[in-house]
């Protein structure tokens, strides 16, 4: 298979975890005889420094013309007071690609179960997916303005925007444990009242899938108290952002969780849920979220399930040996951990073919 992948390394730990992701892609290429054309483009703070724009026209054009986009992370204190922020480029990219469905799977690895702040019997049942609406809500609605005395953000959702993300969640639940939890603030927000109404209507078209509604404050509590109850969570943009970082703690580290973002048509975007981690020293970041984002890309954009499963299995096998980066209490660096995953990947695939 031959594919064009645009790689946006961005800022902070972005280039380091992107390097790990690319090494995994090169190993898959070699083991399975694929050709991935990896095209680097400037994005985020790096692009502000070069062009004064976090999403240069050239970068956007490359993304739109690609088979998939792989993104590491953007942002950092250097640009906090700059006229343009790196994060603005990320929002503009998501909007331009139309990637409304952000899929964030949350699982707890057997080998890192003891690192979860939850009791093991609670944490081991964690297996859910946060489906976050990604191109609407308070991030994108107008009016949005600020004076010295007052600032305004607006939270708008249309029926169609709610319908398509909730439909996405129901279709996903049909392939899993057949339960959707819709999270809103329908006791206060008008947008949530519409959200709940539309969700009820969509549910009528999916017999055999259970629907429950939770208010976002109670949901934040349930995620810690009884996370095993969740299968597919569907929620609006800001709630999904906050709840998915909360969910990452169940898995032991924010450095473990990947994401995929899908549009109605055109290339999908794959990125770890974490940011640029400016507090981390060089070569200390956990590359697992990036490697899992690569696996999601292989599976969801290219249909390469065996390759995606091999990556996940290699990560699990290395974790089982006790090797881990410092966020998981280990001693490995980004590059040494990546070396182990590559070795494991190669060994496992060759053993599978009876050649090792
Ligand atoms: P962050 O996700 O960068 O870091 C939060 C905490 O998690 C930090 O303690 C960090 O060290 C840790 N962490 C994150 N990724 C890790 C990894 N791979 N391995 C080990 N530990 C990891 O969030 P923040 O500090 O609030 O934000 C820093 C910058 O990143 C901000 O500019 C923010 O806007 C940006 N950001 C970007 C994205 C993105 O590009 N998709 C996502 C979130 C935040
Ligand atoms: C994420 C990030 C972004 C978001 C920021 C950096 C704009 O936190 O991808 O979760 O809020 O969507
Ligand atoms: Mn976030």
UniProtKB/TrEMBL annotation:
Name of encoding gene: leuB
GO MF annotations in UniProt: 3-isopropylmalate dehydrogenase activity
Pathway(s) this gene product operates in, as recorded in its UniProt entry: Amino-acid biosynthesis; L-leucine biosynthesis; L-leucine from 3-methyl-2-oxobutanoate: step 3/4
Record's keyword annotation contains NAD: yes
Needed co-factor(s): Mg(2+); Mn(2+)
Broadest EC class assigned to this enzyme: oxidoreductase
Annotated site location: Important for catalysis: 139, 185
Species of the source: Ectobacillus antri
Role summary: Catalyzes the oxidation of 3-carboxy-2-hydroxy-4-methylpentanoate (3-isopropylmalate) to 3-carboxy-4-methyl-2-oxopentanoate. The product decarboxylates to 4-methyl-2 oxopentanoate.
Family membership noted in the UniProt record: Belongs to the isocitrate and isopropylmalate dehydrogenases family. LeuB type 1 subfamily.
Residue ranges that the Swiss-Prot or TrEMBL entry lists as coiled coil: none
Protein name per UniProt: 3-isopropylmalate dehydrogenase
HAMAP family linked to this entry: LeuB_type1
InterPro entries: IsoCit/isopropylmalate_DH_CS, IsoPropMal-DH-like_dom, Isopropylmalate_DH
Listed EC numbers: 1.1.1.85
